[in-house]
User: What shape does this take?
Amino acid sequence: MVSKATEVKAGEAARSEAGKIHWDDSQMRSGYANVCNVSSTREEVVLLFGINQSWSRAGGEVKIQLTDRIILSPFVAKSLAGLLNNVIREYEGRYGTLVIEGTKSS
Assistant: This one.
């Protein structure tokens, strides 16, 4: 398991080589999603985020209110996948394994 200090040092080293990064959050907005879907083409990966509007699954229809679409290049999508894997690994190390219905745990 990579320690947070090691990740920070690696990030600092990369930034010092590439120059200083300024995160401009003046236009940032926050949202919430409890549903995500992903599709892709050769040129892009599309993430759809939304909120499950159904109180129960009875009746067979589930209504999802889509709120955001994020379009990424495949390179950024792969980088995001690595970052998310690291975050989930750290989370599970602290709080225990996350079990998702309908999938096998690894």
Notes: Residues 53 and 63 are 5 Å apart (CA to CA). The mean pLDDT is 85.
